[in-house]
Amino acid sequence: KTSGRNRAVVYQEHMNEVLQLERTIEAELREALRTTDQLSVHFQPLVAQKTRKIVGAEALARWHHPKFGSISPVKFIPVAENSGLIEDLGDFVLRKSCALGAEVPGRTIAVNISTTQLRNPGFAARVFDLLYETGMRATDLELEITESILLDDEHVSAQNLRTLRSSGIHIALDDFGTGYSSLSYLRRYPVDRIKIDRSFVSQLSDGHDSVAIVQAIITLAHAMNIQVTAEGVETEEQADILGRLGNNTLQGYLFSRPVKADEIVAKFAGDPEV
Ligand code: C2E
Ligand code: CA
Ligand code: CA
Ligand code: CA
Questions:
Q1: What radius of gyration do the chain's Cα atoms show?
Q2: How far apart are CA 16 and CA 39, in angstroms?
Q3: Where is the EAL domain (predicted)?
Q4: Closest Cα to residue 213, out of 245, 173, 172?
Q5: Cα(243)–Cα(103) distance, rounded to whole angstroms?
Q6: Which of 77, 109, 251 to mutate to test the pocket of ligand 1 (most atoms within 8 A of CB)?
Q7: pLDDT band, residue 2 (cuts 50/70/90)
Q8: How confident is the model at residue 1 (pLDDT cuts 50, 70, 90)?
Q9: pLDDT computed for residue 37 by the predictor
Q10: What are phi and psi of 27, to 5 degrees?
Q11: How far apart are CA 261 and CA 256, in angstroms?
């Protein structure tokens, strides 16, 4: 039988390992950001619900380490956020995204933005610089922010969002339904779109409770003039139910995994009637 003391020792060792791993990831990521050749951005198609045409793509950071191989953003994004490296990493992703956006005018390029980035008073100006440098249109850019920003009292974040949005950039609320906020918070920030989290979408089947939840989210969003994207769509049945519920945009492995920039350009070219 393990004594309380032993359990505490095991826990301590475990925490030490976790901290050690985080420190390693941080040091390796700092190095990766110096030359950026281990880093890339992949793009996952966004598909119109009614026509099933590719209307845009979401940018997703990728890291291929020479020794450790592919490291998931689920692991390195939180480390980047806690260490401040997210500023440089986020800038890298935005630059690649704007470069793509300039190549494919008329398609929406959605980019994940951390709360840390939004709290930087220079953030909006940096986005405008990148749009100008690359020639991407502001109206083709969508910034995905998480629900946690709605609980953030930071005046700077709200100011950044207002400045960005007044230039025609769209704002999407990511992972909707997973946080502590509710639709009532949406009134605090100008939001053009919400993205229904995969955890709801994956449970969509006729007769399941999640159908009612998703229906309620879509109805309320539309009443507030907000568009809806369902993420993590993997089956035709899910896409079908979402269509009946009035969803606007689909994203998920049913259509495509995230692909390299040249592959997304080819997909856009093969699907011209937006
Ligand atoms: P997210 O923003 O919710 O992005 C969607 C995630 O779901 C992506 O994982 C995507 O590959 C995955 N996905 C898409 N369709 C499906 C599907 O049909 N089934 C399943 N099982 N998964 C699907 P990924 O690329 O591993 O990214 C994970 C998270 O890391 C993202 O979640 C986002 O929160 C964060 N992230 C990725 N890139 C960036 C970035 O450049 N900046 C910031 N701040 N966060 C990023
Ligand atoms: Ca996202
Ligand atoms: Ca999401
Ligand atoms: Ca998600």
A1: 20
A2: 28
A3: 22-272
A4: 245
A5: 30
A6: 77
A7: low
A8: low
A9: 92
A10: -65, -45
A11: 13
Atom of ligand 1 nearest to the CA of 144: 2
Tokens (6 digits) for 267: 């997909």
The two three-digit tokens of residue 120, written as one number: 């930087």
For residue 105, CA distances in Å to 21, 210, 248, 260 come to 41, 36, 20, 18
Cβ-contact 133, 102 below 8 angstroms: no
The answer to whether 90 touches 114, Cβ cutoff 8 Å, is yes
Q: How far apart are CA 198 and CA 238, in angstroms?
A: 11
Query: Which is the closest atom of ligand 1 to the Cα of 254?
Result: 18
Q: How many CA atoms lie within 13 A of 95 on its CB side?
A: 10
Q: pTM for this structure?
A: 0.94
Provide the 8-state DSSP code for 256. -
ipTM exceeds 0.90: yes
**Exposed/middle/buried for residue 210 (C-beta within 10 Å: 0-12, 13-18, 19+):** middle
